[in-house]
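Today's session is about reading a structure prediction critically. Students often jump straight to the picture, but the first step is always the sequence itself: look for stretches that repeat, for charged clusters, for runs of hydrophobic residues. Only then move on to the predicted structure, which in these notes is written as discrete structure tokens rather than atom positions. Here is the chain we will use throughout the hour.
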Amino acid sequence: MDTNKWKSVLLPRDVYENIVVISHVEGRTISGQLRVIFESWKNSNLSSKDQRYLQEELEKYRQQISNGEEDSDEEPIYSV
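Below is the predicted structure for this chain, in token form.
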């Protein structure tokens, strides 16, 4: 697996099972369904200001990765 493109995540089993069924019903892959769910949540729950902040932080995070500054053993911690 290309870890620059894909990451593994842990989900509660019941959440995973629901996502599998929904993705089959809607004709998507599991990753495609997670993307739809995330984008829907983001657009429904974050203000424009929050979305701009998220984009700025994402750009900083990606820059750190490209500079080799990320510690691969630890997940980054963000606070809002």
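Discussion point for the tutorial: Residues 13-66 form one domain.
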